[in-house]
Amino acid sequence: xxxxxxxxxxxxxxxxxxxxxxxxxxxxxxxxxxxxxxxxxxxxxxxxxxxxxxxxxxxxxxxxxxxxxxxxxxxxxxxxxxxxxxxxxxxxxxxxxxxxxxxxxxxxxxxxxxxxxxxxxxxxxxxxxxxxxxxxxxxxxxxxxxxxxxxxxxxxxxxxxxxxxxxxxxxxxxxxxxxxxxxxxxxxxxxxxxxxxxxxxxxxxxxxxxxxxxxxxxxxxxxxxxxxxxxxxxxxxxx
Length: 239
Prior knowledge:
By secondary structure, the protein is of the alpha+beta class. It has a single domain (7-209), classed as Hypothetical upf0131 protein ytfp (Roll), CATH 3.10.490. 35% of the residues lie in helices and 28% in strands. It contains nine helices and seven strands. The chain has helices at residues 20-23, 82-93, 136-144, 153-166, 172-181, 183-187, 195-205, 217-221, 225-237; strands at 13-17, 31-48, 59-77, 99-108, 114-123, 147-148, 151-152. The strands form two sheets. Strands 1-3-2-4-5 form a five-stranded antiparallel β-sheet, with helices on both faces. A hairpin with a 5-residue loop joins strand 4 (99-108) and strand 5. The two termini are 23 Å apart.
């Protein structure tokens, strides 16, 4: 195993994307490869009280949690853009401190296959927003009735599946979740994001009772330090 960008690319940085980073990285890179991460899975394991829910009715967003395998994209960032990329990612991913930025071994799907270390954002299980391993039924109840400043939670799921489909990445568990939410959505091709159907279902379900913990804002603030730690680590890794 060798760290990303060894030999002539000693200081290059690989970044592993499993969610929105795959289709909206927001940083400049020199190459991108399909990649597989073993030991972690992409799943709905974080309560959202901002983008896809609110304090009274939290939604769910994706995180990387222990157990399983995840297919995603690995981006190679040139050495001269390493620091600015790390600082950008710290600001983007560590708003609430719900992730740990970690170097993980990933396998690049190329010929020949290559193993590198890539930066990935792993869910922080001690964070108050960590939902754990919810059943598909519980995930469905939360997602279909939640909405935040970025829109209905169901649109987030539908759009995620649409992007994964476009990249040729299959995620059976997310498809099963969509089927639990409704057969109409499971049959869709996701061409227009499903906003009309998601809004209609939201109107019906948003007032139905769900069993969710009371997420105290003060408790979440204890983890904001991760943003400062990530920024400090970014500078340390670039020296």
